[in-house]
Amino acid sequence: MDMVEETGPVAVADGIGSADTVLDPADVRRFVLDRLAADDYTGRRVLVLVPDATRSCPLPLLVGAVHEALAGRATALDVLVALGTHAPLGAARRTALVGGPYPGTTVRDHDRRELTTVGRIDGSRLAELSGGRLTEGVDVTVNRAVLDHDVVLVVGPVFPHEVVGFSGGNKYLFPGISGPDVIDVSHWLGALITSAALIGTPGTTPVRALIDEAAALVPAERRALSVVVRSGGTDLHSVAYGSAEESWARAAEVAAAAHVTYLDRPVRRVLSLVSDRYDELWTGAKGMYKVEPVVADGGEVVLYAPGIRTISHTHPEIADIGYHCRDYFTGQWDRYRHHPWGVLAHSTHLRGDGTWSAERGESCRLTVTLATGIDEATTRAVGLEYRDPAGIDVASWLADPDALVVRDAGEDLYRLRT
């Protein structure tokens, strides 16, 4: 590799592409090589954070370019899969995810047994960040690999997200490689605000502010290659490089144009043909999150995913808690506060908006129906409706003017124009 003059850490992001373009992989590779060559990585230890297989992203292209740019310059170059609340991949799936092998580079899953505490957000500050919704402080725990590296480089996509508004950036640290405390607090804050109010919200939401606050406690420098992926594939609309915050912000602007579809009026029914990248309801529920805003009161969302045969690989608690609206939990908080808050949040996100009172019980705005490989008894036991997936006729749904059929559901958001 030719010698380059390094200019010091990058703060303000720059990038290539837009929501209306599809980038040539050669241009993406050259952008990554040029930007990393101009930044100060020589002699430093670099930890690369990447998403798992539940996010569409051309990781072999991106990680390959990062390795090409930094191998031989960085004294250590390691890749960590930011699992967040998801199940580990294992060696074979990791290799398929990122490509390689990459000489001199380790690729491994985040492991919650490798946590360290980097600080604390006290109760008064959390109250400020959350708009008074949460008042108890939280310890900030994260994979201790951040202490073994000088730079954390996030490499991954930005999509509309039910908890934080838009994914990406510092979210690859929290919840990506964090401990359960920040995961529970951030996800429950999102649930209190509600998924419908947060998803696709531009700028710094309260949950994003909390995540950024936690990330600021990480001693390593934080940078990001934030990409926007063309729907249904791995082509890229854009790529931005800079600080974790600035790179994310630039990509989020593109994602807001590329991954949000606007309807002029609400629909009565939605058939979400859930992407096969999801193998559990815990992640496949994104087929509900991304369409909830366009469904009329009293409407129905059907999640069609015959390949999903389990509710969650890693969170068995949801089978006992079931799916309920936010008010069901807040109205009985003493009963539920000791359950993992991240699980409670997932429950509310899938069930959607609703009300609960001791006198009238629970009333949810929408019906959520599973047409999956999960059996009818299990489906109804967790509070959801059931349809036999073999009986779903996509053609009849397409012919219904009051219905919306979403293919490869889970990444693109649908909203009403007004």
UniProtKB/TrEMBL annotation:
One of its GO terms (molecular function) is lactate racemase activity. Residues 42-191 form the LarA-like N-terminal domain. Transmembrane segments: none annotated. Gene3D superfamilies: 3.40.50.11440, 3.90.226.30. InterPro entries: LarA-like, LarA-like_C, LarA-like_N. PANTHER family: LAR_N DOMAIN-CONTAINING PROTEIN (PTHR33171), LARA-LIKE N-TERMINAL DOMAIN-CONTAINING PROTEIN (PTHR33171:SF17). This is LarA-like N-terminal domain-containing protein.
